[in-house]
Amino acid sequence: MSHSELEKLIAEKKARVAIIGLGYVGLPVAAMFADKGFDVLGMEIREERVKMINSGKSPIEGDEPGLEELLNKVVGGKKMRASTNYEDLRDRDIILIDVETPVDETHTPRYAALKSACTNLSTVMKKGALVIIESTIAPGTMKGTVLPLLEKNGLRLGKDFLLGNCPERVMPGKLLANLKVMSRVCGGDTPETANVMVSFYRNIVESDLDTADWATAELVKTVENTYRDVQIAFANEVALICEQAGADVFRVRELVNKSPNRSMHIPGAGVGGHCIPKDPWLLAYGIEGSDVPLRLIPAARAINDQMPLHMVKMLEKALERHNKKISQSRVLVLGYAYLENSDDTRNSPSATLIGGLDALGAEVVIHDPYVAEYNGDVLAKAEGCDAVIVMVRHDAYLNLDPAALKAKLSTPVLIDGRRVFDAAKVRGLGFDFSAVGLGL
């Protein structure tokens, strides 16, 4: 199929679309293209998830505006269905791959899902199809990993299929909104392929769609998230300085940001999610073996990774003021998701915090209104606890009555990693209150 033929199918909404991987990215993408009139097939290895989606229900918990309603609409309208069978992909004209791309403990990309998707697709791919990798990948992955796998069974790029990458840019809680308003980079094997990608994505994206080559598109996404990681690390290090200097980092940040072109990030109890903790390592991996010295990226990762353990140190100091040892304490952790009002627990800073508490012998109680394993009555869970640590800025905690919380505690220790509580107010109630970036 030529570029012009594929563009004609896209314009007429006759291009048959598939999305491999129906998670936080793939599911909303599938639903949005289906809503625009395309015939969409979702490929997912988890059978229970497929059944749920085919019943019109979203498997994504948390506050995700409009997603379940949209999914119910397109599934009910026979514009979208999910499957576990790769054979169903044989008639697809455009295939998007949205699978996880984690790194391991040595910061090496683990592309098991990506490799599996590409390998399975290569056996059933329609001649002339356009394959687009939306997963975030290290520079060089398109050329070194994706292309060889798609060509494994004799198909050839440019002759038998087209290949591009268009890194996703979404965040839990804003999945549909981000897909509409965030700009995207369409990296193609040729400028013509990139232009076809623009025509396709224009159906759902209202912002800029810039064309590029594979390497540029790979770099834009990993650099963007690495930039955020470095900026957050700077804010966290300043917060630690403010604690020692007896100042409030939020007031410092407010005044710094009054200067033109300054935008200091918000510090906090750690960085989580699928993207920011790993994408800096993907960027670094892309230049492995070169003579580029890596100093800033590893330093930023180290700062952000240690913030949950800094919360443990804050707790130890607070308990000492009450002649309590952490090994003899019961601690309530508020929030297990990595992001407010979400059920996404990937790379949760709370998991690191809890590991640190467990290692010191504390009894840990966990509450999260969006994570099924940990929801329930927060005040009931606070009963008899010696301390509360706030790790996630869920709306439920913003509305929590601090006086009612204090009444349940054996020791009034409150450690706030997300500035949920007003320091003056809770200290006025008798709390021993500490917060990230707040000097005592």
What does this structure look like?
With 440 residues, the chain is α/β, with parallel strands linked by helices. It has 2 domains: 3-221, NAD(P)-binding Rossmann-like Domain (Rossmann fold); 298-435, NAD(P)-binding Rossmann-like Domain (Rossmann fold, 3-Layer(aba) Sandwich). 41% of the residues lie in helices and 13% in strands. The protein is built from 17 helices and 13 strands. The chain has helices at 3-11, 26-35, 47-54, 67-76, 112-122, 141-150, 175-181, 191-201, 214-245, 249-256, 279-285, 296-320, 349-359, 378-382, 395-398, 402-408, 423-428, and strands spanning 16-20, 39-43, 80-83, 94-97, 129-133, 161-165, 184-188, 209-212, 330-334, 363-367, 387-390, 413-416, 432-435. The protein has an 8-stranded mixed beta sheet, sandwiched between helices. Strand 7 (184-188), helix 8 (191-201) and strand 8 (209-212) form a beta-alpha-beta unit. Helix 9 packs across helix 11 (279-285), helix 9 (214-245) runs parallel beside helix 12 (296-320) and helix 12 (296-320) packs across helix 13 (349-359). It is elongated, with a radius of gyration of 24 Å. The termini are far apart. The model has no long low-confidence stretch (mean pLDDT 95).
The chain-level mean pLDDT equals 95
The helix count comes to: 17
CATH architecture of the largest domain: 3-Layer(aba) Sandwich
Series of H and E elements: HEHEHHEEHEHEHEHEHHHHEHEHEHHEHE
